[in-house]
Structures are given as C-alpha cells and as structure tokens.
Amino acid sequence: MNKRFEITGDLRKEFDQNGYIIIRGLLDEEEINSVKKVIEHPDVLKFQYGRPDLHGKEPKLILWQHPGNDVTGMVARSDKVASTCEKLLDGEVYHYHTKLVTKEPYIGGTFEWHQDYGYWYKYGCLYPDMMTVFIAVDKCKKENGCLQVLKGSHKCGRIEHLIVAEQTGADADRVNAIEQVCPRVHVELEAGDALFFHCNVLHTSGDNISDNIRRALVIAYNKASNSPINMPGSTKHPGYTKLHKVNNADIKNCTNFTDFSGKDFWKKQPQI
Predict the structure, then answer these.
(1) pLDDT band at 56 (very low <50, low <70, confident <90, very high)
(2) Which CATH architecture has domain 10-235?
(3) Distance of alpha carbon 141 from alpha carbon 214, whole angstroms
(4) The overall pTM is greater than 0.90
C-alpha cells in the first residue's frame, strides 16, 4: 500500500454507501512485528479477560482508554489511521478506546451480531459520529473467525441491543430481517490489512475452528463534537481528549515496547 494514500471521492462514496472500506497493507510487516512486541508483553497480557458467547467459548480482550506513547499508541495517533477517520467523519476525532481482540485456536468464541453504537449510545454519545478501525495482527480468515459485516446496514440506524450471554447483542429478529436486504460479507484480511467501518454497521465473527490464532487491534474514534453527555455510563470511555497525532514514520521510529504509562487499562466489568 502507498503509505501516502488519500481518501478519494470514490473511497468516500464507498464508505458512505457500504458503511466500510478496506485498506490493504495499512501496516507493513515491520510495523506489525513492532505491534506484536507490545501486545505480547506480560504487562499488557495481565489485563486480558474473556466475554463468553452462548456456547461457552470466549473471545478475549484487552482494552485501554488512551493511546499512550508505545508502538500501538503511535498507530492510533498516526496520520494514516486517525486522519483517515477524520476525513471519513468530516471533522476532528479523538481516541475513544482501543481493544486487542484475541481468538485462540479452537477455543476462541463468537462475537454476537451487534453495532458498536449499540453500546456507545448507552454511554452518552448523542450522535453516531463514531467509527472503528479493525487492524489484522494475524491473518483473519473464515476458519479462524474473521469479521462478518452486513453491507450497508449502517443506513438502518441504531438497533435495539440486549444482553446475550456475557455480550451485548443486537435484536436477533431485526438482524435476520436486515440480512435479507443487506448482504453478509466475510472480511478476510492479511496481517496489516485494515477495515474502517461506521459505528452502525452490523457485524459479528465466528468461532476459531483452526489451529491459527486470530488477533486484531481494534481502535475506536469519536468525533470531537460528540463528547458524551453527563448520564449514567457516560464515564465508561473518555470524553473529548485532544488527540496528538504523529507522522506515519513515527510508528517505525518508536522503540517503546515496555512503557505503557497513561494508557489506562480496563479491568473486566459487567455488560450494560
């Protein structure tokens, strides 16, 4: 991928129509290897927790509230990630949170159908001026539980969400109806590829039935003008916090693989 790629009119039209765009090779092999040094560090892994699905299998997560100054922070603050989101959302964004999502071989479970705004609406965000960047750390294929999206489903607006096992899932009857008009797409990615998607896109992912681990860096952004209002749950993720963006080259130039100060890792909490 050209590291100076631009959001062209065609890409913006694709995002508006489908709710997502795929950027191949957003991170190269060297950058992905640097990310792995961070996410495999014991001081990061100690914050990992599971979210069991209906069948008792569980995908695992690590969540942090602020980007920090390590390599993963440089990715979240980089021009090719953060500024791309600003162009797609038409305005300044800030880092809402980042998750490392892991599906271990054979035991990594399903994420039920949901919209990210299904959660974030309850956290005091008035508008769906939010999006997520899903960066594959390992190959994401059907066999190891790649993301699946309903193309164009963001146009349906916010769907009611309920507790499903220990996850929050969209109303199943509504999802089934939407799938009749919005095609299901399996988003198969190579390591370093990225999916940029709108917060109202319905998405899910299946079990990892392979012997290959599936990890993804999942970075959420909120528009600066959409800082959560003061209500129960509004402090679950940060309000507007100025994002200090960096050049793309700062990802490779960063040698911080061990200092995670300021990231504010999350301890597992009940779903609401």
Answers:
(1) low
(2) Sandwich (2.60)
(3) 9
(4) yes
For the beta carbon of residue 92, count every other beta carbon within 10 angstroms. 15
What lies within 8 Å, CB to CB, of 40 at 6+ separation is: none
pLDDT digits (tens, 9 = 90+) for 191-219: 999 999 999 999 999 889 899 999 999 99
259 by DSSP, 3-state: which? Answer: coil
Residue 201: CB atoms within 10 A of its CB come to 26
Both tokens of residue 58? 């569980």
Residue type for position 199: C
Question: How far apart, in Å, do the first and last CA atoms of the chain sit?
Answer: 39
71's CB contacts (< 8 A; 6+ apart) are: 31, 34, 35, 37, 38, 251, 254, 256, 257
What is residue 202's predicted lDDT score, i.e. its pLDDT?
A: 97
